[in-house]
Structures are given as C-alpha cells and as structure tokens.
Amino acid sequence: MGIKHPVQVLAVTGGKGGVGKTNVALNLSIALAEMGRRVMLLDADLGLANIDVLLGLSPKHTIADVLAGKCELRDILLHGPGGIKIIPASSGTQAMTQLSLQQHAGLISAFSEINDQLDVLIIDTAAGISSSVVSFVIASQEVLIVVTNEPTSITDAYALIKLLHRDHQVMRYRIIANMVRSQQEGQQLFNKLTNVTERFLDVTMQYLGAIPFDEALRKAVQRQRPLLECYPRSKAAIAIRGVAQKIDNFPLPASPRGHLEFFVETLVSCEVGRC
C-alpha cells in the first residue's frame, strides 16, 4: 500500500444564515486554486444546495445519485471556475438532510477514489447548528467561521463554538469577518467574539482577516459568476486572496488527520454518536 496523499479539509461555517458563507467558500476555493492548489468544493448543504445556483450550473447528477448507487463520485464532479472541482448537493430533497450511517460511509468512502487528485477539500456547510453541520465540522481539520457585524451573527457564531467545544472538544477556530465597512471594523468584530469566548471557553481563536462589503459581489452574484473571476481587482476579491494566503500557510496535519479516510471515519462516527 503506497503513501497516502495528504489532503487539508476545511469547513466553512457560521451558525447564522445570510453571512455570505457560500460566497466566501467558493471564492476562497478559487483563490487557493490560483496559488497552485488542487481544490475541491463540497456543497454540504444537503437539503438546499446553492453553489451550483451561484454559478449557473445544472448538474445532471448529485450526491443523492452516488448514495443511491446510480453513479460514482467522479461522475458527478463539476468543473468549476479557476480549475476547481465541485461536488453538487441535491436541492429540495428532504431525505438528504438526514443521512444514514451507510449513506455517509458510502459517500465519503467514494472520496478515497479521488484522494490523489486534490490538495484541499473545502466544505460549505449549511446554516445553523444541526447534527449534519456539526458532523461535517468535527470531521474537518480546520474550522473557518464566517461572521458579520450583527448581534445575531455574533451570538450564533458563539453558540456554534460553544457547542463544538463543549460536546466535541474542538479547540481551534479561524475567524473571517465578512461584509465589514473597514479593516478596523473587522478587527473590532473579532475582538467582540473573543471577549466572550475568553470569558467562558478554553479555545484558541485566530483572526484570518476582514472581507469588506463590496457592491461588486452583488453584481457577480447577479451574473452567476464568482467574484474573483468577474471582478478580480475588487476590494473584496483582494481581501479574499489575503485570507487564502494565510490558509495556504496552514501546516499540514500529521497522520492520520491528513488523510480523507480520517474524514470518513470521523464523519460516520459522529452520525452514530461516537464522536
């Protein structure tokens, strides 16, 4: 058996909906691909898929078809902008929001087939703190939390961190301040969150940077194209590349956490309540 190729697994989450999480995940994927990384983006909002909608793609098959045994994972991969690969989720399929043990095992074991084809797997989770969201986050090596300067966003981000720390011993969180008016506002937002976590939780928080509110993003969404492709020199695009630079410098996890098999096993364990 040969040496397994290490893959970084990053979960992009936030607790609250509407914080721009999917746009951040998509554009970070493209930014990392620009830097030479082989990137795959998993739409893990298994009931309300939206990455394909953002890009105007019409997948013929989704994860649901893989789980049903109709096709293999490689058959559903979409070629996204910037050379990224996209794993589309099914939209409006209620059964997809509660995967069985066998379905999770079947889904993620399929990743072993493509292990040598990627360097980074980015997981765009659903909003909220459902068991599905928690499972994907716990199975990942890095937790990227997107937060905006709204009381509900800060409260929900803290609730997610508290849950992950209390019930699953997740100790490290990387914070991205999104849709802020200035770098100062982004830093203040991070400070608000850390002021609460430092009082009540024993966790490590790292600030990855601020992404400014940018009208270019709204225009890109309307055109169903990613910001980095549509407006590569916009303020938000430049900020996203800065965040990607920091992510690119994350150390690769030591074995076995650097292998997709670990991601599989942890995800399945969480679904049966063993994590």
From TrEMBL:
Keywords: ATP-binding, Nucleotide-binding. InterPro entries: FlhG, MinD_FleN, P-loop_NTPase, ParA/MinD_ATPase, YlxH/NBP35. Coiled coil: none annotated. The keyword Nucleotide-binding applies. PANTHER family: CELLULOSE BIOSYNTHESIS PROTEIN BCSQ-RELATED, SEPTUM SITE-DETERMINING PROTEIN MIND HOMOLOG, CHLOROPLASTIC-RELATED. This is MinD/ParA family protein. It comes from Zooshikella harenae.
